[in-house]
Design goal:
This protein has about 260 residues and is of the alpha+beta class. It has one domain: Clam (outer membrane lipoprotein receptor (LolB), chain A). The protein contains five helices and twelve strands. It has a twelve-stranded mixed beta sheet with strand order 7-8-9-10-11-1-2-3-4-5-6-12. Helix 3 crosses helix 4. The radius of gyration is 22 Å and the shape is globular. Keywords: Signal.
Length: about 260
């Protein structure tokens, strides 16, 4: 009789353990990561053009504005979405500063990742029009370096960003730190594709660092289908046109 009670207890314990582990495995696919941002690239302070002199006045308040900005990365099975979560102040001046702070480093817009189909789309507004930019995956190199971000052991990986703007083509080294303790592949903005989740990324313009990781109830991510679908090359042309318009605007103001 005593042995039978022990066997029943072991069976119940094993069943509960299976349920608990299975529940964790399911919930691990649904999480939200909050990132803070630091700006490492200042607005150009060169004095060869009037608009650059004017823009240089943004440097100090820009550093302050970025402190209040937070981004959210949510993962749901094979999908994720990354976007800014802090609302802009009502004051128009603060709005201008925060919009600039949000944009620096390529973090403006909503980034949707479909891991199963290997598709990443950036939803953004430019030149008063909505676009869906089809992003290319990064080619990563993993290094024999590690550190802790919060309680998670992270490993270093690097890649190269290529930016085509009105000045020319530029290449930036990107440093990322990812952990195998969280669902793989996903990360902030256009940085993803590693064997763990990216908790920190720095691209020469800004740094995003995870400040909170939460496991949440299962949910679905809705795909945004509004806006013209374009490639990264077409997006670069749009950016160049937008920059030209901004420069012409400032030149007209200071004539």
């Amino acid at each position: 009789m005593k042995n039978s009670v022990v066997k029943i207890a072991l069976i119940i314990s094993a069943s509960l353990g299976f349920i608990s582990n299975n529940s964790y495995a399911q919930n691990a696919k649904f999480l939200e990561v909050i990132y803070k941002k630091e700006v490492s690239l200042k607005v150009d302070t060169a004095k060869n053009n009037p608009y650059q002199v004017n823009l240089s006045a943004f440097n100090t308040p820009l550093a302050d504005a970025v402190k209040d900005i937070r981004y959210s990365l949510k993962t749901s099975n094979n999908n994720s979405v990354f976007k800014v979560v802090e609302s802009l102040d009502n004051d128009s001046k603060n709005n201008t500063l925060k919009k600039a702070a949000i944009s620096i480093g390529g973090t403006n817009g909503d980034f949707y990742i479909n891991k199963q189909d290997s598709i990443t789309i950036l939803n953004k507004t430019l030149l008063d029009a909505n676009f869906r930019v089809l992003l290319k995956p990064k080619k990563w190199k993993i290094h024999n370096k590690s550190k802790y971000i919060g309680k998670y052991l992270c490993y270093k990986a690097t890649t190269i960003d290529t930016v085509n703007n009105s000045i020319g083509i530029h290449k930036f080294r990107v440093n990322a730190w990812f952990t195998n303790q969280l669902p793989p592949y996903f990360g902030p903005a256009a940085y993803y594709g590693l064997s763990g989740l990216i908790l920190e990324v720095e691209n020469g313009k800004m740094r995003l660092t995870a400040t909170k990781v939460s496991f949440v109830k299962p949910f679905k991510i809705k795909k945004n289908k509004s806006g013209k679908l374009i490639t990264e090359d077409e997006d670069s042309l749009n950016q160049i046109e937008a920059e030209k318009n901004i420069k012409e605007h400032f030149n007209d103001v200071f004539r």
